[in-house]
Amino acid sequence: MDSSPPVGVCHDMCPERERRDRESQRRLHQFEIQKVQCTNKGRRGKGHPIADPQKTVKEYRRPAAGKDVSRPIDLRTPSTLAKTVQYLLMDVWSSVNYRDLLCLAKAYAFVFDRLRAVRQDLIVQRIRGKGGALVLEGSLGFLLCAPYLVRDLPVADYDEVLHSTQVRECFAELIDCYKGGGEFPRQAEFQSLLLLYDLGNLDTIHRGLQLPCSVRQSPHVCLALAINKAHLENNWVRLFRMVQQLNCLQACAFYRHLASIRNKVLCTLIHAYSSRNCRFPLDLLTTMTALDSPSLTMDMCNKRGQTVTSGEQSSVLFLKTTLKDVKPESPGREINLVEQKKGKASWSEVMIGWDQVITKLPQ
User: Fold this and answer.
1) 192 falls in which pLDDT band (50, 70, 90)?
2) Whole-prediction pTM
3) Which domains does the chain have, with CATH numbers?
């Protein structure tokens, strides 16, 4: 039997057969239809949407018995997969209105699903090396930034567990691409993103320490390893000082740990400075936890049964006897740690790496 993987020959973002089928079954997404409706009327006198070949993107389908997902005509070439990722991020996602939660939910569901289909094509063809890395790096850019951007969506629109699973699988496939050898301009950056996403994971740290010298000694990886060390040592002051040095994409990878770390910081300080004769400056606590304003710090303290005193300089009276065991706050907006680092770049540019935008796609 021939064990060689199939080689895709499709140069469209969506194979023609699927495009026709979904058009006839009226399963096109609003991002995929033409503005002009079909003139052929049905029995009820209504037309149906027409697929736009330049916008229709192959959807993700679970492998099922009796269905062949390895037909070359239905598999996209590496260059087409790279173009698809770029289109999803630079065209579809860039049009999102973040204040409109309905629009945000639809865009997230569409891009998330289509990126799964992209990875599916990669896996079926066993594409590795530079071609696979280029596609996976762009996909991970979206997967790491999305949790911050869709944080206000209800559970029905954003499945945190499913999203996290896709991130880990994507990282695993990307690391396999790197193991094949060759030059990868963004390898150090994404190795650091994995260290930040898996903060405190000893296996991930061990793999980071085993990286080739040129990658391990890069500023990205050195910073990520130092943050992991501070986390393991419970050195919160040093940790937040270094977190300030992260770029926007790195801050998004670290974002998922913020609430739990701040909770640990506050509980540690409450036990260390518990005294009726001791006052801890509120501004200093705000700086130590990298919060955006003293009011947010005050809310955290009040929820945990700590008293914030007003006066010439607001301060916190830490008492472990009044400490309340509360669940860490849900991740919220982070201006200092995330948004200010974005600068003038759009979120789409952060995801794809604007200085790494595709200029020459692999064949």
Assistant:
1) very high
2) 0.92
3) 70-254 (1.25.40.990), 259-337 (1.10.10)
